[in-house]
Amino acid sequence: MRDRGIILTGLALFLGLVTFPAWYNLARGATSRGPDIKLPATEKQCVAPTAYMRASHMDLLVDWREQVVREGNRTYRAPDGKVYTVSLTGTCMLKCHTVKEDFCDRCHNYAAVRSPYCWDCHVDPKLVKPLAHGSAAASEPRPSGSGSSTLAGPLAYARGSVSASEPRPSGSGSSTLAGPLAYARGSVSASEPRPSGSGSSTLAGPLAYARGSVSASEPRPSGSGSRSAP
Amino acid sequence: MTITRQAFFRMTGLAALAQAGRRLMAAVAPRRWAMVVDAQKCLRDQGCTRCIQACHRAHNVPTLPRPNHQVAWIWKERYERAFPSQRNEYTAETFKDKPVLVLCNHCDNPPCVRVCPTRATWKREDGLVMMDWHRCIGCRYCVAACPYGSRSFNWVDPRPHLPELTADFPTRSKGVVEKCTFCEARLAQGRPPACVEACPDKALVFGNLADPDSEVRKLLRARYTIRRKPELGTQPQIFYIV
Amino acid sequence: MFMFEKAITGSRRYWLWVLALMALLGLGLLGWLHQFQQGLGVTGLNRDISWGLYIAQFTFLVGVAASAVMVVLPYYLHNFKAFARITILGEFLAISAVTMCMLFVFVDMGQPTRVLNMMLHPTLNSIMFWDFVSLGGYLLLNGVIALVTLSAERKGVAPPAWIKPVILLSIPWAVSIHTVTAFLYSGLPGRSLWLTAILAPRFLASAFSAGPALLILLCLVIRKLTRFDPGKEPIQKLALIVTYAMLINVFFVAMEFFTAFYSQIPEHLEHFHYLLHGLEGSAGLVPWMWVSMTLAVVALPLLIVPRARRNEKVLALTCGIVFLSLWIDKGIILIVGGFVPSPLGAVTAYAPTLPELAITLAIWALGALMITVFYKIALSVRESLEEPGTDGSVPAGTLPSVPAVH
Fold it and tell me: Which of A78, A151, B17, C209 would give a disulfide with C246, using CB separation of 3.0 to 4.6 Å?
């Protein structure tokens, strides 16, 4: 065998590469101890038996998703009889697994199972600033429209009692202007000099009032503040 | 490992029972949600955007830097744009070039529902045209089908454009279409939609058309109302007092 | 498998062409990855114009795919022998075009990973669902037909009898794919440019001009590059089909103009005003519209006059003009124009961005690559048949064919 040297070298290289995970982890001292999850502090009883949750929590979540979104059914009765309102952020997170990193992520990272796109949309409570955080209670049934003093979140603006919607001069664009009318504040390139009332034809839809004769876009401190809500 | 048989049946059986119960309720006490917009009341304060802000806050609707990527569930349009078949040179001063609130009409015969290839949007028994953001494939057929421009597509990830999040409602991701859902989650709790609650002048009245004594029915009997593009047969459920 | 080995042997010129196409594919793939990560906001699409270049290309290519029926029908239904040698070319063109269609739809989706939802949640009232079904079915049909007939040809035997009903099925199926695609547009109450009964007939007419025009060009190219000569007669008959189809197409467009301009209904008129001279300062589509119309008008006499049609150099030019005119018409004007003005009266401009163009070019490159590979296979099979002793045992000049129906 003339090529013995090359072959054996190649073989050694290949074996080294293929067993890389084993000896690398060995060298690193990584153990096979499982993920270290922090159980919820307040709640001791899970919504379903632990063994089931370990194996099938994703099925449960998908079933809940279909129930809530497509059937409008938000109540779930656990095997132990307790009734829960189905809400990923409102119940799962805010009630029990308050810190995603302490519970969910521990196992998911360990198993390298990226949870599907749930968190692309569903709000991780830690992202919510204190102002709206009080809306934890919002997910529970409460008397309609009675506006309790803990009112925050969506109803904050109904009462105008939150700093973001301070008394504003009537008729002028408020500084909290956000959403579709953000561009009514003026420095948008799309809205060239505005002849009053003329066909503001290029802008319809949410930007209709970014130009034209409507008081929403009357002269106001130019470009002050940010375009998005404070 | 699986749960016990009893537990499983309890879980699924109850869900099916709840659904049957709701169907029964719908048959016995039908609901047809609709809204009346008093366009004249709304014009008292033309700079007011409280309903828009309430809605967009409540639902984490983003503010996009590019105007033509805008996402909106409710906004104001010029009268001539909201009611193009009413266009004429001699429109009454009250409405000429004035802003009118527009939103999804939750049509009774919605073209958007007809075209959706995955039933990501569908019409519920109580009248709401619903959205399922888990199922939407982002084909934008519904955007093409809607004759009112009520639907918005997420051209980019909305999260960076949401300086403040509310935990009450998820955001959406890029690549799906969204629109007003008549605050379905609040309705489930017996609360009116956010925009209705936010209006200081009570220009928005929301209620059940199937109940002859509801406020919306009373208003519709007493006042003349128009709807957007009625000739298209979509049967919009937003009525405007003009 | 699939006689693929025939595609990996070729001249230097062949490989340069293939590699150039693959380079375009690679660029487009990068563009798509960028789009997948950032969202469709990287394109020129916007709130008012929510369908643009991708869907327009899809619409045009469905027509090209359907046009295979223009060679299949005369040959298999009416025993028109002249088309015997080119039906396979038509079928391969159809397969490539349908693949491009599906790719254009795929890259246009906001959530492409959820594409299977269309199969998991079939919605029978949605035309898009039926479009998906019909395109998939057409791809399958043509794939099977091409494979079976070409294999049989290579072995020097007649194709199995069961392929006959499959081929016959592909004829109404071809018509249906483009009709269903037209239905995507012609049933939408809010879009007056599309809300016309003549849209589906118009689609078919323009498909049956553009497709055969492309096929003629491909035949002429093949004649130059390979030893395969389709012959003068098939090309002339295809040219005749293009002529009649183009005449009907132009007539249909004229009908649209009449209804809009004579009725004076604003919703219909406004779209034409936008296309012909712009609205409110926005005139992006105006040059495209006039070029497309001019080209169509120029092409007509070149098609109608027999001397021009019989001159293959002039015919090549004419086919190029026809293809370009119809590509602009369906591939740019019709879809974008339908969105302007928007349901709220907005006049918005649309221009594709660089990623959008790269992706579009890549999909066209893939189509071109598929045609190259398929034609290479088919023509290599033919060439080896015509040299006795190399491959099949059939003497030169006798190509078996499926007997026609009577």
Answer: C209
pLDDT at residue C317, as a whole number: 97
pLDDT averaged over every residue in chain A: 66
CATH of the structural domain C4-386, one choice from 1.20.1630.10, 1.10.10.10, 1.20.140.10, 1.10.720.60:
1.20.1630.10
CB B80 within 8 A of CB B87: yes
CA–chain centroid gap for C358, Å, is 19
Domains of chain B as residue ranges with CATH: 34-241 (3.30.70.20)
Q: How many residues does chain B have?
A: 242
What are the tokens at B73? 């569930």
Task: Name the CA dihedral angle for C381, C384, C386, C391, rounded to a multiple of 10 degrees.
Answer: -110
pLDDT tops 90 at residue A105: no
What token pair was written down for B89?
């040179």
B44 to chain C nearest CA, in Å?
A: 24
Structure-token match 């803990």, residue found: A150
What digits encode the pLDDT tens for the residues B113-128?
999 999 999 999 999 9
Q: Which member of B1, B171, B197 has the closest CB to residue A51?
A: B1
Secondary structure of residue A215 in the 3-state scheme: helix
Contact assignment for C111 to B234 by CB distance below 8 Å: no
Mean pLDDT to the nearest integer, C276-298: 95
Quote the tokens at residue B96: 């000429």
Do A97 and A89 meet the contact criterion of CB atoms below 8 Å apart? no
At residue C404, does pLDDT exceed 60? no
- Compute how many other C-beta atoms are within 10 angstroms of the C-beta atom of residue C321: 19
Assigned token pair, A44: 């001791």
User: Is residue A172 very low, low, confident or very high in pLDDT (cuts 50, 70, 90)?
Assistant: very low
Chain A, window 164-203: residues with a beta carbon less than 8 angstroms from a chain B beta carbon: 165, 170-174, 176-183, 188, 190, 197, 200, 203
What H or E segment, with its residue span, contains residue C101? helix C87-108
Residues 6+ apart with CB under 8 A from B119: B132, B135, C121, C123
DSSP B83: S
Which residues lie below 8 Å from residue C86, measured CB to CB, with a gap of 6+?
A: C71, C215, C219, C230, C234
Closest approach of A199 to chain C, Cα-based (Å) = 9
Tokens 């794939």 correspond to C143
ipTM: 0.91
Q: Are strands B99-103 and B74-78 parallel, antiparallel or unpaired?
A: antiparallel
What is the Cα B204 distance to its own chain's centre? 13
Task: Give pLDDT tens digits for C211-232.
Answer: 999 999 999 999 998 888 999 9
d(CA A223, CA A230): 14
Contact B232 C50 (CB under 8 A): no
> How are beta strands A83-85 and B33-38 bridged, if at all?
unpaired
Assign C1 a pLDDT band (cuts: 50, 70, 90).
low
Q: Break chain C into its structural domains and give their ranges.
A: 4-386
Whole-number Cα distances in Å, B120 to B112, B134, B184, C120: 10, 8, 15, 12
**Least trusted range by pLDDT, from A93-102, B199-208, C176-185, C281-290:** A93-102
C276: tokens are 């012909």
Q: pLDDT tens digits, residue range B104-162?
A: 999 999 999 999 999 999 999 999 999 999 999 999 999 999 999 999 999 999 999 99
The amino acid at C300: L
How many Å separate Cα C20 from the centre of its chain? 22
User: Would you state the structure tokens that stand for residue B202, as one six-digit string?
Assistant: 């009570």
In A86-145, the residues whose Cβ lies within 8 Å of chain B are 88-90, 94, 117, 120-123, 125, 127-129, 131-133, 135-136, 138-139, 141-142, 144-145
* Residue C192 Cα to chain centre, angstroms: 25
Token readout for C4 is 């693929």
Evaluate if pTM is beyond 0.80.
yes
